[in-house]
Specification:
alpha+beta, Beta-galactosidase, Chain A, domain 5, 8-stranded antiparallel β-sheet, 5-stranded antiparallel β-sheet
Length: 635
């Protein structure tokens, strides 16, 4: 038993979350949760079911989307009619609603996960999130065809015939149940006309109550996580209280949902910067969607201080979105969650959420009107306003090359999922040239059990054999580091991180633009002579580049990598070294190092990995101060 690690968890995370987690475990082991969810709660069909949100008219959507966008939306829905969907918003796969069928109570499955037999549970849960409902809804409003509504009721009936309340894997996790509740609430309300069979209507109403009850029972776990779990489960309870006003527990659900959602906004979104505590672009988008949903259902849902934090969060995201493509850095954990995909453009287009959040909570639109405004229509937001994308402290504009350089910095906490301080991203005319690998899998077989959070997979300088922080598990780091900006001026950005202070040195990185050249200077500066012996050895400089045709050359002058882009040749020049390697899709392409199956990949969404080019150069570290000068030239 690693007592030192447990002590770090206790002292760095704090006793509050740990006490809540132990309380949750006590509820599991004592049988309390099993008793609380032993059967589906009664539902009186005479109770009202109301949906306060107003859906957009067909004419409004048709005016915003051109013929090609409308055809694309209908194709996505027709994919559902063929029995397929896009797990994690990625490639099409069979919509198998039988995943996770098990007659045992969810608490029994939660206590003993041996039934998984090594399978990633996210593949079991994903079809049951019902995110595919939104494709049917978009097509239904655009076309008016009843077959899309019929598909919703048919698939809903099949799901609940296979997964009665509280039995099987689809009831194990409170967040999964909460997200399904939100999708059911939206779909059942949109597809209410033409009227479904009364049997379908009764099943849907009872399911909403059963989901809300299940979420309320284990909210302790979500509070212990202090993450998007809490915000999604609180949003589900808040939603249930609005839809089921006559339910005996509606008032309790409403109080609990409001309390913890507002608490999470106040405690998990930085008041000044707007960054979400998870340090993840995907989770940041996730929580903004939840806020948009609630503000759509209830006017004046948020008090001024919460509105201010949500506005800061909207500006934080909008400032990082590439205006050409709508894509954004792949920073932090990426589990493929896009809970309200109410626009075209796909998973990697962050404009729909950023635009809607800017309209709802901040200063107005960040981008010109376009098909990404569809989400704003769905959430009842007016499309007027002057577009102005917020500035971002992470972004160094590069107008001479029509590019943007991004440098990752910020404060750390126990929700840090990646060790990525001073990681470098580069966007050229809407294309991501210097990449963040992303996540790929949380629960895959080794070595694919979430390895890419380590600093050595990011575009930064690392000390061989060391990570920036201590890995505390698959989803968090301990011994938190931080990075901050020292200077931000025209064409110049200097930042440093204390990630290596424990080894007696500090990493400082300077970005300097000259025409179409980016000069990157890395320094390791001494902070403690007593500790420097622990870091004797080598430093590694890593770059992950998009998969373009390449040529590499190494001589006594420099190590040069050339990429052939549509605009011409881009060149990356590193200091000369005899120890370097270029890996693509896990296979060595050139250099001296052995192939590494984990290198040379890029994961745009969960469970999908694409080839990329991973260049690592290794240098001896004889003494401090130490510096490296790298130059990137764009066509």
């Amino acid at each position: 038993m690693n007592w030192r690690r447990y002590w770090k968890v206790l002292t760095q995370i704090g006793p509050g979350p740990i006490a809540l987690y132990l309380r949750y475990q006590a509820g599991l082991r004592s049988g309390w949760y099993r008793w609380r969810t032993r059967r589906q709660p009664p539902f009186d069909p005479r109770w009202r079911v109301t949906f306060p949100g107003r859906f957009p008219a067909r004419e409004a959507l048709g005016a915003l989307l051109d013929a090609a966008d409308q055809r694309a939306a209908l194709r996505e829905a027709d994919l559902l009619l063929e029995g397929k969907y896009r797990p994690f918003s990625g490639l099409p796969a069979s919509l198998d609603l039988s995943r996770g069928v098990d007659g045992r109570h969810w608490a029994a499955l939660e206590r003993d996960l041996s039934w998984l037999r090594g399978e990633d549970i996210k593949f079991i849960w994903e079809p049951a999130r019902f995110s595919w409902v939104f494709s049917l809804g978009r097509a239904y409003v655009l076309s008016g065809e009843a077959r899309y509504a019929a598909a919703f009721w048919r698939l809903t009936e099949r799901f609940f015939s296979l997964h009665p309340p509280y039995r099987g894997a689809q009831w194990m996790n409170g967040q999964e149940v909460a997200l399904r509740l939100l999708a059911l609430a939206w779909g059942g309300s949109l597809f209410a006309a033409p009227p479904p069979r009364e049997e379908d209507r009764r099943r849907w109403r009872a399911a909403l109550a059963a989901h809300a009850h299940r979420v309320s029972v284990t909210l302790t776990y979500a509070r212990a996580q202090q993450s998007n779990h809490l915000m999604s489960e609180a949003a589900a309870l808040w939603t249930a209280s609005l839809l089921l006003p006559d339910h005996p527990r509606a008032a309790s659900w409403g109080r609990t949902g409001r309390r913890w959602f507002l608490w999470a906004v106040r405690h998990h979104i930085d008041r000044r910067s707007g960054e979400y505590t998870h340090h993840s672009l995907n989770y940041h988008r996730f929580i903004l969607q939840l806020a948009l949903w609630l503000s759509w259902l209830e006017a004046d849902a948020f008090p001024p201080d919460v509105q201010q934090r949500l506005g800061a969060a909207a500006r934080w995201l909008a400032g990082l979105v590439d205006p050409h493509s709508g894509d954004a850095p792949n920073w932090g954990s990426n589990d493929g969650a896009y809970i309200f995909p109410l626009a075209g453009g796909g998973f990697r287009d962050f404009r729909p959420v950023a635009q809607a959040a800017m309209r709802a909570f901040a200063d107005g639109p960040a981008f010109e009107t376009g098909p990404w405004d569809e989400m704003s229509l769905w959430f009842g937001l007016p499309l007027a306003g002057q577009a102005q994308q917020p500035d971002s402290p992470f972004v160094l504009p590069w107008p001479q090359a029509d590019a943007r350089v991004l440098l990752r910095h910020g404060a750390g906490n126990w929700r840090l999922g990646h060790a990525d301080f001073l990681h470098l991203d580069l966007w050229l005319r809407g294309r991501n040239l210097l990449l963040d690998a992303g996540t790929y899998l949380y629960n895959g077989p080794p070595p694919w059990d979430n390895p890419w959070p380590a600093a050595r997979f990011h575009n930064t300088l690392t000390l061989a054999g060391h990570d920036q922080m201590t890995r505390g598990g698959r989803f968090m780091y301990l011994d938190w580091a931080a990075a901050w900006v020292l200077l931000a001026a025209e064409g110049r950005l200097i930042a440093e991180t204390d990630a290596w202070d424990r080894l007696g040195m500090r990493h400082r990185r300077m970005l300097r633009l000259e025409g179409k050249s980016l000069h990157l200077e890395d320094w390791l500066l001494p902070t403690s002579r007593r500790r420097q012996k622990a870091a004797q050895g080598t430093v590694q400089l890593h770059f992950l580049l998009a998969d373009w045709p390449f040529a590499v050359q190494s001589d006594a002058e420099a190590l040069a990598l050339r990429l052939t882009l549509p605009e011409g040749v881009a060149e990356l020049h590193l200091p000369a070294t005899s120890r370097w390697s270029l890996v693509r899709a896990g296979r060595a392409q050139a250099g001296t190092h052995q192939p590494d199956p984990l290198r040379g990949w890029y994961s745009p969404t969960y469970a999908l990995k694409l080839p990329a080019l991973s260049l690592v150069a290794e240098y001896p570290l004889p003494a401090l101060p130490f510096s490296l000068h790298t130059v990137l030239r764009l066509p």
